[in-house]
Design a protein that fits this description.
Elements (H helix, E strand, L loop, with lengths): L1 E5 L3 H8 L6 E3 L2 H7 L3 H11 L4 E4 L5 H11 L6 E6 L2 H12 L4 E6 L2 H9 L4 E4 L1 H6 L4 H15 L4 E4 L5 H10 L3 E4 L1 H6 L4 H17 L5
Parallel strand pairs: 1-2, 1-8, 2-3, 3-4, 4-5, 5-6, 6-7, 7-8
Helix pairs in contact: 1-3, 4-5, 6-8, 8-9
């Protein structure tokens, strides 16, 4: 499963990229707004930090303007992935862009039927929002299972990008189901490293080593 980080925080992205575990980045206008910086400038900087896809979202709601915005965004770097909403106009834009060889991430997916439509429109990625789904009384992971089944039934190449990841259990469940990608905030990715027994083990090793009075260096 590929790991994307969901942030526009340059330092957080640089830190995770240094681990070698980061396969891409997802952003949205809200995340970039928090940085207080220019949208295109931040996107370009992120694209230099990772080799994989960097999702940059259009803000228009009509197909014609989405295409104009996409033209600007995809010129920023070769690894820009245009992010569009799961609407009729969004899928029109998706079809036009993917037919031209541009990566497209279709976002705000909340049903398997929507995911089916996105795959038929040629989406590179579909982003079902599991956390928001959970918030509204549904099981986000049931949605991922349904999409995985449908995509496997018809050999769709669209990758399932599990979004709105709230905790490490979401990551585990997504991996067990066979999601292609997950995107999470930096804090959730860092939490994957943590285990109380690992911490205790390191503490014990360090205490034993200190008693020897030795140094490797």
């Amino acid at each position: 499963m590929k790991f994307f980080v969901d942030t526009a925080d340059i330092e957080a992205i640089r830190d995770l990229a240094a681990t070698g575990l980061l396969d891409g980045v997802t952003t949205n206008p809200s995340l970039i707004a928090k940085s207080g910086r220019d949208f295109k400038e931040v996107t370009a900087e992120i694209c230099k930090l990772v080799d994989g896809p960097v999702s940059a979202e259009v803000v228009a709601l009509d197909h014609e303007t989405m295409m104009k915005e996409a033209e600007v965004l995809r010129k920023i770097a070769d690894n820009v992935c245009i992010k569009v909403p799961l609407t009729v106009d969004g899928l029109k834009t998706c079809k036009a862009l993917t037919s031209d060889g541009t990566m497209v991430n279709v976002t705000l997916c909340f049903s398997a039927n929507q995911a089916l439509l996105a795959a038929k429109a040629g989406a590179s990625f579909i982003s079902p929002f599991v956390g928001r789904h959970d918030d509204n009384g549904f099981d986000g992971m049931d949605l991922i299972e349904d999409i995985r089944l449908i995509y496997d039934n018809y050999n769709f190449v669209t990758e399932i990008l599990v979004a709105s990841v709230r905790h490490t259990t979401h990551v585990l469940q997504a991996a067990k189901i066979g999601a292609d990608v997950m995107t999470a905030p930096p804090a959730v990715i860092h939490a994957l490293f943590k285990h109380v027994l690992t911490d205790k083990g390191i503490e014990g090793f360090m205490a034993d080593w200190a008693k020897t009075g030795q140094s490797i260096l």
